[in-house]
Write a structure and sequence with these properties.
It contains two helices and eight strands; from the N terminus they run ββαββββαββ. By secondary structure, the chain is an alpha/beta fold.
Amino acid sequence: MSTIEIELIPEFKGERVMLLAMDRDGLVAVRTALTEAQYGLASIAASGTVEMEFRSEPDQAAIDLDAMPAIWRLSPKKIDEIVEKLDAMEVFPGPCHHYVDIATPAKTLVLAKDEYLST
């Protein structure tokens, strides 16, 4: 079973960030959903009750956690950037993270593999 946690963190190394923390299986699930979103719409369930829907929309880099499911509106270029970073994280043997610039609800999305998980 994969672990995927998403949370808006008000104070993370001095700034407000959106944190997407995953184990390896969760990372694969997110990458797969993002790849599918390039061709339309894709969704996955995160740990707990949060579901996420990924949408490819021009000139977007926004995550709406208040919607049910949480809606990710990302440009094709932003999806490619995130998928590229997830690919690099998957092959890295230990815990790791990457930062991605987004517009809302914070300026930074932190992608974390085997770090910052609550479980």
